[in-house]
Amino acid sequence: MKAIRFGRAAAVLSIAALALTACGSDNPTGSPEAAGGDAAVSGTLSGAGASSQDAAMQAWIAGFSAANSGANVQYSPDGSGAGRDAFLAGGVQFAGSDAFLDEEEWEQAKQICGPEGAMNIPVYVSPIAVAFNLEGVKELNLDAETIAKVFRGEITKWNDEAIASQNEGVTLPDTAITVVHRADESGTTENFTEYLHAAAAKVWTDEADGAWPGGLGGENAQGTSGVVSTTSSTNGAITYADASAVGDLGTVKVKVGEEYVAYTPEAAAKAVDAATPVEGRSETDMSLQLNRDTTESGAYPIVLVSYHIYCSSYKDQGTANLVKAFGNYVISEEGQNTAQESAGSAPISDTLREEAKAAIDSIKVAS
Amino acid sequence: MSNTLTEGGAKGRAGDKVFSNLTLLAGCLILLVLFAVAVFLLVQALPAFTADPAKVTGGEGFWSYIWPILIGTLVAAGIALLIATPIGIGVALFISHFAPRRLAQSLGYVVDLLAAIPSVVYGAWGVAVLAPALVPVYEWLAANAGWIPIFAGPASQTGKTMLTAGIVLSVMILPIITSLSREIFLQTPKLHEEAALAMGATRWEMIRMAVFPFARAGVVSAVMLGLGRALGETMAVALVLSGGILTASLIQSGNQTIAAEIALNFPEAFGLRLAELIAAGLVLFVITLAVNMIARWIISRHKEFSGAN
Amino acid sequence: MPQLTTTTPPAPAPVKRSTLTKNQLPGWAMWAVLAGSLILGAALSSLIGFHIATWALFSALIYVAAGYFVTLSVEGARKAKDRFATNLVYAAFIVALLPLVSVIVTVLAKGIPGLTPHLLYYSMNGMTGTVDNETVANGTPVIGGVYHGIVGTLLITTWATIISVPIGLLTAVYLVEYSKGGTLARAITFFVDVMTGIPSIVAGLFAAAFFGLVFGPGTRTGFVAAVALSVLMIPVVVRSTEEMLKIVPNELREASYALGVRKWRTILKVVVPTAISGIASGVTLAIARVIGETAPLLVTAGFVNSINWNVFGGWMATLPTFIYRQLMNPTSPTNTDPSAQRAWAAALILIIFVMLLNLVARLIARIFAPKSGR
């Protein structure tokens, strides 16, 4: 008797499961079927790498496949290091990375990509906000040295003289500062510590690194969403995170030259334009050395630049065409705007775009 | 039916041969896979052992990098086992010998189910629900039991501590221990139990005299499986623990486990760092080996019963 | 419960009670103790600032202690010990229930709002942060679903099960029935234990490296993931099956041999069916162990937003990777709520799957298990 009842329940459930698996739709947004587009590229392009540009990547993939029905792009956000490794092993056709290939990797890439090696194209620029949770305070002015001291735990109270002197008229509570940093190794941490080391070298003596200096205390959490939610739930907490994710936390205006600059897409793009190219690479390579201690007016120096790494030549025509089409879409005005809308990144400037376009157009088939 | 069963002669003998060889093959395949995994780990980890000590994370060589997180791993797993073993066995006993039959069945079902909740969910629960709830407890402990080093203050304000991680782990392995122990308890020969009761034993005496001796090896097995999961658990610990350098206090942020260290740093690792992390995985592997040797030794000392041999 | 009237010393001369219930606490006694402990617990708790948790804790401690001493004074030491153990077992059960219920309530509360037909029938293909931003701005229902993840999880888990259950089952049979405790058997048992300790990410890396060697670098398919999961599943299957086969009474085997049945038929028709309930439970547990794995899947199966039915070609999404991705890298970094909603709903679906699986396992056990008195 019992077995029968049991069996019936199981039957009903398995039929429901069958019905579920029988039909599903790949088109949740209800967008019209892709019309094919004029660029007749097809095939599958695989990429792997940084999770920072993942949200933008999803937007690019969606936009690109809408224009090219035969093309399929997949991206696995395993992390920059894993992405570069996979690229150098020939496992994926392009990598997304928060850091450009270093010298050793650069040489290694020649085995996969032919004598001219790979190219690093900056495609994703995102300001890193210094965000805090302090009741009644939405904005603070701080210079690099103060920020460094706060994150080192040398300034422990929000009403410390160093903070108060830069923010006249703001009532600062006597709350303890809780520093929240990333638990995982990340490009965000690397760019933030690089800024601190360059702009406040006396206070921040640690070299730039993707991992937070081990000796410093403070709370930590995994991922951008982790630090943001920990900060949101702890009064007096301060953290650094991708500007698009900080929500309604208070943010810091950073002192550049003589003025305090808030993070904006424009200010971030300006800082990238002020960067110098890395020496000793091929003509098409666009690796950038950011000037963190820049005094240029209106530039916001704490930015994360994420690259796409492509080969300068691919084995077959189809792949080369596909890479070219995708790369050009990503850096195009449309691509950059889509990324801004959905991921909150800063579009690259026109000068950068022209340079990148020339580089991508030079991609050819290995002879 | 009995005809097919007793069908003798060459065909039956061949069946015997084929079947026994099949089982042997399966066993050897497992050894082969494990061997391959070990070789893979060794090859990939080698650079970490041979590298210039100054280049390894921490700047003092691989071993001084690994031992704090090794201790963290053992502590986390230890806390988890300390909590989950007695409770798990208690729950298994409750389901097998105390609860009303009808209730027991659905309870067993629910417990099996809990083993299936993905560790990400346990982690998210630990951060969102458990950690904040434990903050007042930690503050109380720091104030009243702070003289014990493991409860030294100041207590963490987020509750993301080693003790919380241990508790989350114990919740995760509880279903494993309970589920297997329950099956073993249920298999205790009815005759033994009834004999004990007929002699006038109370229920507890019956359990001690009939159920426990029968189930000992199986329960140790269940606990070891739980330990395996506790040692290797990554996501939950990575989410719950606010890791850092080795600290004696369990109610401050700090400490780290090997598995979480791997998970947190693996995505951005390359070259030597990758080798370090895989070497850390190898160390975890060796610990499991050691723990299992100890468990085997315990079981072999109590080998008075066994069904098959 | 048998009464031990003969072993207790005769009481002086209470005439009114029957000899059978002599020295036995009346039924209401324990309830009275419970009520007393609750009151006392409340009093103690309010001494240090009343809180429901401390109240429950103190009451429980007092109840267990009082139960022991009350029984000790009336019914004797053996009964008192029994009462004490019983209370502890009940306490263990309640303590275990608390976090588990909390986990389930959390998943239900956060998962049910997102569990819509749309979520079940659609993939995330073409979804961008813009869509989520509009959803939040306009207050429209969240779109984008987990269909691709459901397909991936079902296929990959099925393949992992197909690989690991036969291997695990046969190995366990070898260990229990054929090995006679030889060196090889001891080695296998030992190394199976070791295998339970392989960190899941290592299993994933191993499978990725292995397939990379054989089929060229960067081979990521559902099948690679299934192999990685098998490495994690096999030890659990072997371990639990071995335990279950061991406790099949030898009498059954001997009876079968005595009837002239061949060993392999005895194993297949007598030994395994007797243990099938436990084996099914173990296999379910093994599947449950791997169905929620995230790390090894990311490095072996990749991640996509569209539906892929082919385990041998192309990347695949699964429910755990979907959950992880939605929580860690929300589709729209500015508005994470839709992503969180999808993630929790996906977690709920995953749990429902395992529930179904459990039902099926029990059904199988019920069909194949021999009739028994239990």
Helix content of chain A: 25-40%
Q: Nearest-angstrom radius of gyration of chain C?
A: 28 Å
Instruction: Count every beta strand of chain A, where a strand is a DSSP E run of 2 or more residues.
Output: 15
Categorize the overall geometry of chain A.
globular
Detail the poorly predicted runs of chain A.
Answer: 34-38
CATH superfamily of the largest domain in chain A: Periplasmic binding protein-like II
Count, helices of chain C: 14
Measure the end-to-end span of chain C: 18 Å
The main sheet of chain C comes to: none
Keywords (chain B): Cell membrane, Membrane, Phosphate transport, Transmembrane, Transmembrane helix, Transport
Domain ABC transmembrane type-1 (chain B): 70-295
GO molecular function (chain B): phosphate transmembrane transporter activity
Function (chain B): Part of the binding-protein-dependent transport system for phosphate; probably responsible for the translocation of the substrate across the membrane.
Give an overview in words.
The complex is a heterotrimer of chains A (367), B (309) and C (374). Chain A contains twelve helices and 15 strands. With 367 residues, chain A is of the alpha/beta class. Chain A folds into two domains: 203 residues, Periplasmic binding protein-like II (D-Maltodextrin-Binding Protein, domain 2, 3-Layer(aba) Sandwich); 139 residues, Periplasmic binding protein-like II (D-Maltodextrin-Binding Protein, domain 2). In chain A, helix 10 packs antiparallel against helix 12. The longest helix of chain A is centred in the first third of the chain and has 21 residues. Chain C is an all-alpha fold. Chain C folds into two domains: 112 residues, no CATH class; 221 residues, MetI-like (MetI-like fold), CATH 1.10.3720. In chain C, helix 6 runs parallel beside helix 9 and helix 6 runs antiparallel to helix 11. The longest helix of chain C has 35 residues. In chain C, 53% of the residues are buried. The N terminus of chain C is likely disordered. Chain A: GO terms for molecular function: phosphate ion binding. Chain A: This is Phosphate-binding protein. Chain A: One of its GO terms (biological process) is phosphate ion transmembrane transport. Chain A: Keywords: Phosphate transport, Signal, Transport.
